[in-house]
């Protein structure tokens, strides 16, 4: 009996040690960010966790293109039981106009939403909603025994009345996915906006060397801290993997604006 208890404890410890956090997203999360002195926030996340982080974010991707190119399939295949998978899209998912860009999603907050678009060759293509692409990945991850976390996109450096401007529709879509699939939702937009509001427009603007989207390494670190704060304010079991540096990130849970 004693040996069985020891074996069971050893297996439990081994499973905890082998857990990994995997990231799926765009350039705001990816290694190298958007280039030219920028960096993605996912690069800094491992500083605040006791388990390793594998960054599978890719610049320029949307929920649709990440799915169509097989990147979600690869992520699901590599995920192990007990791994955490953070999914964050939205910056590249907006409507493209008359000619499809391979990234836009059908407009609407729901799974069973489709639209027909025309590509550069004049072909008509059926596309699906933001939720369709992400929820299919979530179901596949859950079937593997992984633990998906849906995160809203990060804010652009756009201000209104002394605050970061309000969120777009993809933040709402991400929240709806979390509710519909009963998985952890981190409002990364709101926690980052709160951090930026506290710093002020002048300081925040130093985080954006090239445009209003891609952060410098210093900005990416601030955005990573905002994600950890959002994680600590939620109910994900990933909270138990936040180290002392993560526990000390700035921000509070009660002052997040809508």
Automatic annotation (TrEMBL):
Keywords: Hydrolase, Signal. GO terms for molecular function: hydrolase activity, acting on ester bonds. Pfam families: Lipase_GDSL. SUPFAM superfamilies: SGNH hydrolase. InterPro entries: GDSL, RhgT-like, SGNH_hydro_sf. Residues 1-18 form the signal peptide. PANTHER family: PUTATIVE (AFU_ORTHOLOGUE AFUA_2G17250)-RELATED (PTHR43695), RHAMNOGALACTURONAN ACETYLESTERASE (PTHR43695:SF1). Belongs to the 'GDSL' lipolytic enzyme family. This is Rhamnogalacturonan acetylesterase.
């Amino acid at each position: 009996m004693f040996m069985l208890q020891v074996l069971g404890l050893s297996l439990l410890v081994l499973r905890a040690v082998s857990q990994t956090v995997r990231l799926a997203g765009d350039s705001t999360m990816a290694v190298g960010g958007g280039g030219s002195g920028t960096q993605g926030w996912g690069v800094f996340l491992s500083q605040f966790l006791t388990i390793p982080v594998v960054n599978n974010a890719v610049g320029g991707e949307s929920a649709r293109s990440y799915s169509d190119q097989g990147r979600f399939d690869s992520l699901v295949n590599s995920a192990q039981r007990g791994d955490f998978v953070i999914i964050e899209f939205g910056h590249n998912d907006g409507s493209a106009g008359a000619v499809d860009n391979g990234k836009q999603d059908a407009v609407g907050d729901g799974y069973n939403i489709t639209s027909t678009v025309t590509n550069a060759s004049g072909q008509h293509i059926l596309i699906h909603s933001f939720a369709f692409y992400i929820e299919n990945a979530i179901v596949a991850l859950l079937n593997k025994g992984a633990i998906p976390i849906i995160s809203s996109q990060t804010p652009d450096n756009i201000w209104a009345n002394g605050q970061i401007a309000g969120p777009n529709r993809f933040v709402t879509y991400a929240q709806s996915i979390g509710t519909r699939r009963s998985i952890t939702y981190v409002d990364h937009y709101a926690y980052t906006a709160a951090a930026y509001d506290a710093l002020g427009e002048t300081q925040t603007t130093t985080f954006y060397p090239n445009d209003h989207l891609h952060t410098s390494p210093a900005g990416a670190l601030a955005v990573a801290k905002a994600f950890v704060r959002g994680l600590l304010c939620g109910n994900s079991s990933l909270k138990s993997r936040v180290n002392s540096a993560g526990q000390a990130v700035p921000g509070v849970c009660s002052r997040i604006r809508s």
